[in-house]
């Protein structure tokens, strides 16, 4: 006489009661070596399949992985560092030269890297073009300052220049760190 549970068909993948995950019927693979064994890497989804769905739910997406921004791996870390320096060299020159030589650092980096790296060339050219525009605006502010009527205009231009000369290179450096290109809002397009 047979046991009643042995006469019923099972709802297991291979139809055998001892094969929970359907791997015992796979040639050359035991249940311990199956896709849900303790040593197997989990590609996505949960380690235990649900009753209605077998296999990984998010194939190709590691569980809990934080992905870097788009383009991050495409740019060499050295190139990112030099692009960051190209953007921040305007701030360093702002402190050292009272704002008159902010274009020198990006110009030097552009001259060195113009044929080596398109990413660094674009960052240095943008920083140079922006610094040149700020330099011309500063020159206009100084000319306005020496005319009695233009002093209020010179103060407004000077304060605006101080803010944008600090803010936009920092934004450019953050974007360069993320491997993204940054376009300054206003430039005199001399270098490309």
Describe the protein.
Helix 2 packs antiparallel against helix 3, helix 2 runs parallel beside helix 4 and helix 2 packs antiparallel against helix 5. It is built from five helices and no strands. By secondary structure, the protein is mainly alpha-helical. Helices cover 47% and strands 0% of the residues. It is elongated.
Shape: elongated
Structural class: mainly alpha
How many distinct helices?
A: 5
Q: Which band does the percent of strand residues land in?
A: under 5%
C-alpha end-to-end distance: 89 Å
Mean pLDDT, all residues: 74
* Unreliable stretches: 22-26, 33-37, 44-51
Sequence of secondary-structure elements: HHHHH
What Rg, in angstroms, do the CA atoms define? Answer: 31 Å
Q: What is the gist of this entry?
A:
About 45% of the residues lie in helices and about 0% in strands.
Descriptive tags:
elongated; mainly alpha; single chain; 192 residues
Q: In terms of topology, how is this protein built?
A:
Elements: H1 4-7, H2 77-97, H3 104-113, H4 118-146, H5 151-177
Helix pairs in contact: 2-3, 2-4, 2-5, 3-4, 4-5
């Amino acid at each position: 006489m047979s046991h009643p549970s042995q006469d019923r068909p099972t709802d297991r993948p291979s139809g055998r009661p001892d094969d929970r995950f359907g791997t015992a019927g796979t040639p050359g693979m035991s249940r311990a070596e199956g896709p849900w064994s303790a040593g197997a890497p989990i590609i996505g989804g949960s380690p235990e399949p649900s009753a209605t769905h077998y296999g990984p739910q998010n194939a190709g997406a590691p569980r809990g992985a934080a992905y870097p921004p788009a383009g991050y791996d495409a740019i060499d870390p050295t190139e990112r560092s030099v692009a960051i320096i190209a953007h921040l060299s305007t701030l360093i020159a702002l402190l050292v030269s009272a704002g008159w030589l902010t274009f020198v650092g990006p110009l030097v980096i552009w001259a060195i890297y113009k044929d080596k790296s398109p990413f660094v060339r674009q960052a240095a050219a943008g920083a140079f073009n922006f610094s040149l525009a700020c330099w011309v605006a500063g020159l206009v502010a100084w000319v306005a300052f020496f005319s009695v009527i233009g002093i209020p205009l010179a103060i407004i231009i000077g304060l605006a220049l101080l803010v944008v000369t600090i803010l936009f290179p920092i934004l450019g450096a953050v974007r360069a760190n993320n491997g993204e290109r940054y376009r300054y809002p206003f430039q005199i397009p001399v270098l490309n």
